[in-house]
Prior knowledge:
The protein is an alpha/beta fold and 573 residues long. Helix content is 54%, strand content 12%. Strands 7-6-5-8-9 form a five-stranded mixed beta sheet, with helices on both faces. Strands 1, 2, 3 and 4 form a four-stranded mixed beta sheet that branches. Strands 10-11 form a two-stranded antiparallel ribbon.
Amino acid sequence: MFQDKPTIYFYPQGIGCHQGELKVLKSRKKTVVTLDIGPFCAKETILMDSSDGTVYHSRQLRALTPYRCTYGYDVLVYVGYGLFVHSHSEQQIIEQLAHKNVSISQREIGFLGKKFIAYLAIAHYQSRQRLKQFMSLKGGYILHIDGTCEGDSPHLFTGMDGIAKIVLDNIKLPSEKAELLIPFLAKIKQQYGDPVALVHDMGRGILSAVKAVFKDIPDFICHFHFLRDIGKDLYGNEYAKIRIRLQKHKIRGLLRRKTKALEKLVGDDTQAVRRLLEGIDKGRIDTSFLNNMPAISSYAMIHWALDTSGQLEGYGFPFDCPHMIFYQRLRVLHGLVDTAGKVQFDKRFFSLWRPLTKIVEDPQLKRAVAQMEKKVKIFKKLRKALSITVSDSKKGLNDDGQEADIKSIAEKVKIFREEVMTDEKLCQKKSYEKMIAQIDKYWDKLFADPIIVDSPNGQITIQPQRTNNILERFFRDLKRRNRKKSGTISLNKTLKSILADTPLVKNLDNPDYMQIILDGCDTLEERFEKIDSYMVAEKLKMEQKKYERISPEMRKIIQQQDLPDKLALLLAA
């Protein structure tokens, strides 16, 4: 690192034979920033062959930084890995780079992140033949198709090989219609050939598109998606009612205000908190601590009611139901408040009796919770039968399902089905009728025999339909990073702004994939240097134009002053 920005001179190297005299065409100066050197002034001398006009640039400078760019390939890759692999926020990356004598703005990091995805996408596209050969050596590929959206955001679809665990292609679409998905699937088929099998969810668009593009290819329904959709249909309405009624009571805001008031009494008395913890463990309390115990215990109980994360399993709804858990904790809280005088709590705690009573006695809320609790019990039985997303796995979305024989799983689901059908009360309810109808409809796609594929190491038996939640895992990480940055869990804006090929970053931890796309290079920086920077600029331009709702020209029109009068005058003429 240099204290003052140095000047480094660059000349064309390894020119070889040329017909005419080499003359200096021009000299160019620009600031370059790399991790090894930091910021420096690069002065490049550009030569030209006088006989044929061939222009020679410094390959050494081009190996450090893209044409007309300030930040080097090493900074580009550092930012890309920081954002998409390590899930660091822009501010964290700014601080990390500052220690390396690299000054960079948050806006520049966002741009380098998109640029990193563009370079990776081009390297991926240029490697598709090698990827195809690699998958062929493994006996072919199983195409997993998954998509995500939020609010009015575009639908982001991903095609992935379930055997090699490699994301193959991505696309952003305005909706999940079959006519939009067919070209995407046809492109994957053209590039990689027919898959051994397909795995996807039960979306109508995907089902129709798969049927049109991949005729006579074994087709499976992902157990994870099937179970998730069953749960949403089974008690989605009740859960929505619970959420709406709790919001109407505004109980969360009230509880937070109470904790702030109690926090002033509790203060920084860590010793008292430690004594309470010891008392809970031992089952008895230190009598010298009794004076401050009501405030601390009240503070702890209200925070306990608000913090439902300890009961969540990491799968999302309908597996995790934080609003129902919150209501159940409020019932416990109400029971403690109702024991006024018997348990030592602060007076602010007992003032919760009226608002909590209104919630506990809310007839709509009570009815919705009672119905949902019954349905959750049935749903958990189906989870257990399918042997996936089981409550004690502790893996969340990383759960690929228990290693179980598909025939034994099918037998368990058959027993579950019979229990529901023979229950006089359950079999007459529409929600359970619909659940059984879904199981029957997709039975063959859920419980087909395993696929046997040939590979250089012999035959491999694959049960493809167990899980297809690759995109949920990716967007769980993306949502976590987005929450750190903006404080919101919504992915709406993120899905609108990110490049469609962003899920390719999931391949970066796959050694086989890295060897394929590096194509003989030692590092990703070296591989990116071999990509024409004009291709990257063009891809970024196309991506922006593709997803802009209003073109720059139209934006200029609508920003015109007195537009209605001007337009009326123009059309009248």
